Amino acid sequence: xxxxxxxxxxxxxxxxxxxxxxxxxxxxxxxxxxxxxxxxxxxxxxxxxxxxxxxxxxxxxxxxxxxxxxxxxxxxxxxxxxxxxxxxxxxxxxxxxxxxxxxxxxxxxxxxxxxxxxxxxxxxxxxxxxxxxxxxxxxxxxxxxxxxxxxxxxxxxxxxxxxxxxxxx
Length: 169
Prior knowledge:
The chain is mainly alpha-helical. It has one domain. It has 6 helices and 4 strands. Helix 2 packs across helix 3 and helix 3 packs antiparallel against helix 4 (92-111).
């Protein structure tokens, strides 16, 4: 794994070992940090000022993954803990997973990482022919050429229309 150093508008990566005891959580946090920082850099929206939001996003993603593993193993309803209890209880990890998911959606929208928000955070320019707008990022985006629209009458042919009249013989 390669760490991403601070500087040039890139926030410093937190020391995940001081936050998490589990080495899988440390590795997941490091990987998520790299993913988020690269996406923000590609969208030209990365700055030191949004480092705390990126850190919170990574922490919530790690919490979501940890909680979702527990829910996948034990389910959203836990078995009753005593013989008197007939009904199971909600898995507390289910609530953690849902709340982390909501926080992730909010932070992704704030940082411009959510699919709906990506276009709002990107810098746009016209393509060489001046017909379409394409994002100004480090990757090329290919848009399909639009086909000319025809009227409904031109698209439907007599063979494709269905007559609802009974056959007259």
